[in-house]
Every structure is written in C-alpha cells, then in structure tokens.
What we know:
The complex is a heterodimer.
Chain A lengths: L1 H13 L1 H17 L3 H20 L2 H5 L8 H18 L3 H29 L4 H23 L22 E3 L12 E4 L2 E4 H19 L1 H11 L1 H6 L4 H27 L1 E3 L3 H15 L9 H26 L2 H39 L5
Antiparallel strand pairs in A: 1-4, 2-3
Helix pairs in contact in A: 2-13, 3-8, 3-11, 3-12, 3-13, 5-6, 5-7, 5-11, 5-12, 6-7, 6-11, 9-11, 12-13, 12-14, 13-14
Chain B lengths: L2 H25 L1 E7 L3 E3 L2 E3 L4 E6 L6 E4 L3 E7 L2 E9 L5 E10 L7 E3 H5 L7 E2 L4
Parallel strand pairs in B: 1-9
Antiparallel strand pairs in B: 1-6, 2-3, 4-5, 4-7, 7-8, 9-10
Amino acid sequence: MNRKFDSFKHFLVQNAVPILFLVVSAFAIPISQFSGTYLIQEMLVRLSRNSFLVLSLLIPIMAGMGLNFGMVLGAMAGQIGLIFISDWNVVGVSGILLAAIISTPLAILLGWLCGAILNMAKGREMVTSFILGFFMNGVYQLIVLYGFGSVVPITNPAMVLSRGFGIRNVTNLEGVRKCLDNLIPVSIQGIDIPLATFLIIALFCLFVVWFRRTKLGQDMRAVGQDMKVAGAAGIPVEHTRLISIIISTVLACYGQIIFLQNIGTLNTYNSHEQAGMFAIASLLVGGASVSRASIFNVFLGVVLFHLMFVVSPMAGKYLIGEAQLGEYFRVFVSYGIISLALVLHAWRRQKNKDRARRSLRGIEAE
Amino acid sequence: MKQRQILVNLLIFVAMVALAIFCYTNGKANIVFVENIPFNHEGVTYEAFEAIQVSVDDTAPPLFLLAGDRGTVAMAGRNHVLVIEELDENDNITGTHSISFKNREMKGNVVNVVPLIHGKFPGWSYQLDR
Lengths: 366, 130
C-alpha cells in the first residue's frame, strides 16, 4: 500500500506542472465561454506555429546543456533572412525557403559562437545563454538599426526608416503570410488544418528520433549524463556540446521563420525576444525539466501553455470584468511558469535525491 | 578534414546556392500594371472592354477594371496565367478569356489586356515611362 502511495506521490511530483495547468485550464475554459470548435482551431494553429521552435530545444537538453536560452540567436538569424526576402519581394514557399537558406550560415555562425562560449561556462549554461541572448540582441539591433540601409543595401523604401537607414519597427510579411500553412489546404468540419506545417513538424520529430540513435546522438546522451565519464570514454565532449548548440540554433532559426510566416508580421526588434521565453515556458509546462525532455512534452506543453494563453484573458475578463487584467494575467503566466517550473525542478531533484537515499537504506516510505 | 568530407561539404554548399537561385527566380514578385485601354494595331482600333475582372495566377483578389482603367498586381514566378472575365452592366460574367505568358515575353511592367486577348499583338506589354 505504502509502495503504491509512494509511486503515486512520485507521479504527482514528476508531473506537477502539467497537472497544475490541466486543473487551471479545466476551471478557466468554462469561465471563458469559448466554444470547443474555436479552441480546437486555436490549438491547431498554435501547435503548427510554435512546435518547431519548442522542438529545437530538445537536442541541447539531450547533451546536458539545459534549456537553450540562446535559441534567440537562431531566431534573430531567421528574422534577418525574412527581412532580406521582404526587401527583394520574394513571395510564397520560395520566399520561405530562400529566407531559410540565407539565415542558415548566419545561424551556424551564431550557434558556433554560443556553443564556444557555453563550453567556457560549463555548469552555468542556462544563465550564460540567457545573457548571451541579451548581448546578441544589442548586436542585432546595431546591425538592423544602423547597418541595414547604409552598409547592407535595402532597396525597398517602405521598409527603411525615414532617415534613410535602419529597418522600420514592423516588417510586413504579406508575401509569405501563411504560405506554408495553406500549401495543402485541409478543412474538417470548418476547422482548417495547416497540414504542410504539421508534415514538416512530423519530419522534424522523426529526425529527433533518428538522431538519438546515431553515433552523435549517443555521444550527446553520454555527455549529458556525465561529461567526465564521456570524456574518459573518448568522446570529444566540447565538440559534441558545440554541435548540439549549432543544431539547436539552426533549428530555432527555421522555427522562427515558420512562426513568423504564420503571424504575417515581423516585429523587427522584439519578435525574437518572445520566441525563447515562450518556447521554454511551453516545454516546461509539458512536464519537461532542465535535464529531461521528450517529443511528448513538446506537444503537451504547447497545447497546455497556449490553451492557457487563449483562455486566461477572457476568463479574467468574465471573472473580474476588466479586459486589461487578462493581458496582465497572460504576461504573469508566461514569466511565472518558467520560475515555477524551475523551482519545481529544484524541489523535484531534492525529492528524487531523498527517495534514492531512502531506497539505498532500504526504507520504502514513511 | 578528409578529402571526401570536403567534397560533401562543397556539394552541400553548391546545392544550397542552386536552391537559393531557383527560389529567388521562382519567387521574385514584380509589380505589374494591368490596363484596359483601347489599342490600335495596323490601322484597326480595338476598343477597351466596358468592365472586366482580371485575376493573375489565382493568387490575389481579382482586379476590377472599367474602360480606360489601370490597376496593379504582384506577379511571382516565370509563367503566368491571366484570367479576364468580361462583365455586363449588372456585373454578370459574359465571357472568360484565359491567356498564359512568360516573363521573357514581356517588354516592360505594363500589360494591356486588349491586345493580349486579341492574339498578343505587339505592344501588349511595354515599359511605363516615369
């Protein structure tokens, strides 16, 4: 009986965040008064929009580098590609592909930079990548605000600030808007399904599954478990970590392109900042931790986090009668979740240690 | 780096560049003026349509042009299909023409649908003087 209770408690501890979100959503959905069709449509759109970005976080976790806050670097690279195709007026899927090709070398370079720095800060990867994101944001702003239109030629005057250089705050992506989502149009009972985007996400999932079985994937798992042991076994630890960050950055770059083609507007100086925050929050809400994440966590997290996003403003409005409150609640939720998940992760780790110690002593449960 | 590895990397690079060029040429959209104005060919005057609806490559919403009107559309790719629907006074469709043309056939950024429908008479496309 004790053993059963202990394992149930363990299950609750392991899945505290998704359970908490499920409970909050179960209360908030009826209060928000949204219809089921609307919520399903919203979730499908948000799954197609965000899943790729969140999936890009899996590989660094596998390599024991925690949550890659440096994915914003990839997002920046993707945005630069999109700025170029908007300037050249390349539209449709060709535009998306061209943006991806332009931004790939940039993402590789930024990923390499990020990986090299993170190799110097072993054990403190998350905070380092977080700060690196802020640093690179400054560099990005310098380039886009002063370099574009002066050093880098921009031919479309509608994109350039009135002073003659620098990109405007908002870049219109009308030419590529939803071009991937609407590539294979499918509609079931009035619900539009962005099939092409889901196919790409499915391919990415297959890639992750395949990658885990490759030599490099196994090396990453070994490095993630214990760097010293992996090093002693002849695995090039630093090189493996570097590659994991490069792959993650490149994938984040593609993820941001997919995200922005769905939105249809690029917030030139802010879009990338939100990308990292929301992707990480989604993954954590899905039950992932700093050291363990799966594809299931990604999809569960995106659904739960964005369900909360859709439902909470309206629920807040109907509960308190203040529309703005819902917006505040949204921001509070996204930041609060990250801190809650990190606190729960630390608490869970402590619990697991206690549990392991108890089982070592032969004590099942008090 | 092994020689084979260098070769593979080089091949990937070349493939990426080729794909980028293909995407650029295929996806580059140009703003084209579509007009419905009378046209004179070898002494014969072809009148403009009273009202037409023009759609290009089934992408953007169709242009509504009265006689003497000019509108703009963005054309992406190298091959285009222009669908011209003639309208009566109640805006009912009385006739439909579908004409395909290539970018290299165009002489400028203006397309006059009147000579285009009548067998692509010379001058159906010309450069707009600024």
